[in-house]
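User: Please go through the entry that follows and flag anything odd:
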Amino acid sequence: MIDSLLCESSPKNWEIITVRKSARSQSVCSTPSVCMSEDEEETLPALNHTSYILQEHHIESLAAHLPPRVQGCVWDLVYSTVQHGTSLRTLYRKTAQIERPVLLLIKDLHNQVFGAFSSHTFRVSDSCYGTGETFLFTFGPEFKTFCWSGENSYFVRGFLDSLQMGGGGGPFGLWLDADLCRGSTFSCNTFRNQPLSPHQDFTIQAVEVWTFQ
């Protein structure tokens, strides 16, 4: 067949199209109503409980910044101050059997929402733990994430009287007290973050911890 085409007395005009060009041509839509963007095609992750803190825009922003290994997973609520009371010991007890990453959400009395993704669940520890997947985030006034700076590995450390995230040469990136009523947030070397709340010493309205199934 190839020989017969090449030997025609009046050869047709042939266009060579690369694989990349072909794929690009197939993705072009004739009208906007026919085509959906990649963002529109994506669906929000499923949550197995109602959240007191999370709204749709919170979920959408956080889902896009989670590590690949938990993307697409169902979000499972394992601790909530609204359901389980305000106690760091209770938080530790509720997460004791989890061997997966966790998402810590905080809402302060000024309705600021912020928190952290931790590569490991929260527990009482003799030293800092976690990996470079861990990051801090805030929604006030716009969504920002603060990833590992590489300067130190002070990701998470749990005490009976406090939970600490980030540190080195000064205050913590995020600190919560034993009753989960008060906390603080400052710039730290671990994440090179801005304070997560305009009120660096804040009063807590609600705390939630989610994991991924």
